[in-house]
Design goal:
74% helix, globular
Amino acid sequence: MPTSLPSRARRTGHRATFAVLAAAVAAFALLQSLVTPVLATIQHDLDTDQATVTWVLTAYLLSASIFTPIVGRIGDAVGKERMLLATLVALGAGSLLAALATDVRVLILARVVQGIGGGVLPLAFGIVRDEFPREKVAGAVGVLAALTAVGGGLGIVLAGPIVDALDYHWLFWIPLAIVVLAAIATYALVPPSPVRTPGRISVLPAALLSAWLVCLLLALSEGPAWGWASARVLGLLVAAVVLAAGWVAAEQRSAAPLIDLQMMRLPAVWTTNLVALLVGVGMYATFGFLPQFLQTPEEAGYGFGSSVTESGLILLPWSATMFAVGLASGRLVAGYGAKAVVLAGTTVAVVPFLLMAFAHGAVWQLCLATAVLGVGFGLAFSAMSSLIVDAVPSEQTGVASGMNANIRTIGGSIGAAVMSSIVTANATPEGLPTEAGYTWGFAALAGAGVAAALAALLIPRVRQTAHSDEPEHPELALVAAGTVVGDKSE
């Protein structure tokens, strides 16, 4: 059963707490994307091949997908501020190891350690709900959610200038400095969690969750390279299905489930997670392939021959508009409701994908597309996080928001894999993808945006007027009381 700690004097106000959380989320978001535009540089400097250097991204993705829900659940049990500090220490250790790495295998290991930092997101959302005045929760959650994508966009923008002025090692030294400051500030300023859910963490569900996520994301990440019909990919997909079924069974039998499956079946939760999956498809695919399109030599008949720095700057409008929308998200959610904001965001996001598909002959067209995309995703991200926070009791905020972020990452893997398959299906005589490949690829992302808007229509309306432990839906009374599926404690 959840417990509330005795009230105590706060060490700081919620504004200082928010500044700490924003720094932690920004550092994690930067590390998500800083290496994406410079993989070729890392491949050359570490004398490795393309297949191996791809694991610098894949290992991080896999690790974050595994640790995000686990860290969120542990934070709900032992205290969110304690786990936030532990997560920042792990993120810093991984960044230090990556900055010092002179071998690609060491760098891949460092990225696995950095992936533990994925727990920053659910912990930050949970701390906001615990500590902030009720009327401030939606706005704070919206800004933090927007920062995850803003940081990703800024990472691509900043990577080129950092590597040009220094070298790729500084892609890890700079975030390390932010992480160290955030860890010190967390220890000094973030108050103890007033709400906890005691109980041990079940090992078997955690192991099964890790196993099926590894199999699924490995198959999706390597499908374009290994072949979708290859024995390895098919075997991994079958293993993912079998292990996922075992995980569901283990969670239902567990006295202390890692993820409350009844909570995940709540209408506001599963519909929001479906939208997150489809939004992730578009966001990560754009991060990965728009810079490649821009860097294609003009001799191919399309592209602009942009440098890493120039292609990053074309994504700058994305970060600017997304952050601006994140700042306004609290008022928008309060005024129109989170469902309306998610629906507006996913609808707006369809337009820039169509622009990228059919109107990409000038740089200004792509700058306009990325600016509009930032508006759409900014609206969707902020309101989705608010929906999750409102839909579940406070003691389950960490694991619920962690799974939402995790599902978005899985959507990103699907989007990157599908986009890769479409773009690389045909090649020019020079070995470059054809323009038609990019056209159909971005059109497919527009289709994912339409699907996300349709999914947003399924989200039930949730009142945004309060953020208390009282659930807004009758079925949440069972969750709040601890009578969840698989709870054998009675």
